[in-house]
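S1.2 Input.
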Amino acid sequence: MFLLSAVFTVLFCVSYFVFAIGDDPTMVLGLGASNVALGFCLGMALLLIGVGAIQWARKLMGDEEIVEMRHPARSSDEDREEAVASLTEGVEQSGIGRRPLIRNTLLLSTGLLGVPAIIALRDLGPLPGDKLYHTVWRKWMRVVQDVTGTPIKPEDLQVGQLVNAQPDVFYRPFNPKDSDGDDLTAAQAEARGEEPLEVPEGVELQQEKAKAATIVVRMEPSDITPSKGREDWGIDGILAYSKICTHVGCPISLWEQQTHHLLCPCHQSTFDLADNGKVIFGPANRALPQLPLMVDPDGYLVAQSDYTEPVGPSFWERG
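S1.3 Output.
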C-alpha cells in the first residue's frame, strides 16, 4: 500500500504536466481530465497511506498494554509547610502589614487603573437611553404580515395558526371616536396619543422593525388563561407576542399547535402562549412580552399600545 501510494504521488505529478488546461482542456467523460486525475491520484495516495498504517498497527505491531503509575499530585507536608513559611516571611519582609500608608496607596493606585477602561467604553457609542424599553408599536397601528405587509383580520386566522407579523409604520389610522361617537380631529387624536410617531427611515427603520417583530397565534378561547389585567388583550383567541426570545434574542416561531408551546431553536427555551407566554423549559427566565390587540372599525387587528415591558433579552439596566 505504501508503494502504491508512492506510485499515485508520481502519477499526480505526471498528470499535472500531461493534461492540457485553459481554453482547450483535455476532457474525459465530459469532465476536465486534469482535475479528475489530480484529485484521484492525490486522494488515493493519502488513502493508501492511512489504510496501510492501520493494517500495520493491527497485524504487525505488538498488542501489549504498558502501565506506569503516576506519582501523587499533592505536595508533601514538608513542602507545603516550607511554601507557607516562605510566603509568610516574604510578607513580613515587605512590611505591607506594618506600613498601612504604603499598602493603602498601592491598592488605591492599582484600583483606579480600572477607571480609564470604564471611561473608554463610552467611545463604543451613545448610551441607549430609554430605547430599550420601547418599540415602534403604537395605539391603532395595524398588525400586518411580515413578508407581504397585508393587514390581518380575525377571520383570516384559523385555530392553531401562527403568523409572523410586524407593525405597519406607514399606516395613518382613522380618526378615533370621542365619547359622543364623533370623529376626533387629527390634533385631538394626536393629543390623546393615538397617532403613530414620525416614521423612521433607512437603517433606523429596519432596526425598529426588527425590535418590533411579533408573532400572532390563534387558539381556542377556552384554552387561554390570561393573567389579571390581560383579559381584553386578545380577540376571539387571537394573541400576539414578541418574536424575540428573552434569553439571548433569537427569533422564534417553532409552534406546537396542540400544546400551545413556542420553542426557541437556539437553546430550546419553551414558552406557553396559552398562559401569558410563561417559560416552562430552558434557560430563558422571563415570559415573552405580549402585545395588546383590538380591532379597528374596518375589522383589522391593531395594537392597543406598545409592549408594556421591554422586549428581547435581559440587559443590566433592568430592574
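S1.4 Remarks. The chain has two domains: 2-59, 134-303.
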